[in-house]
Amino acid sequence: MSTVPVRKYTPEEYLALERAAENKSEYFRGEIFAMAGAREPHNAILVNLIAAFHAALAGTPCRVYPSDMRVKCPSGLYTYPDMSIVCGMPTLEDDHGDNLLNPQVIFEILSPSTEGYDRGKKFEHYQSIESFREYVLIAQDRPSAERFVRSTDGGEWVLSTTHDLHGDFNLATCRANVRMADIYRDISFPPPTIADIHPFTVYPDGMPPR
Question: Is the Cα dihedral 60, 62, 66, 68 positive or negative?
Answer without folding.
Answer: positive
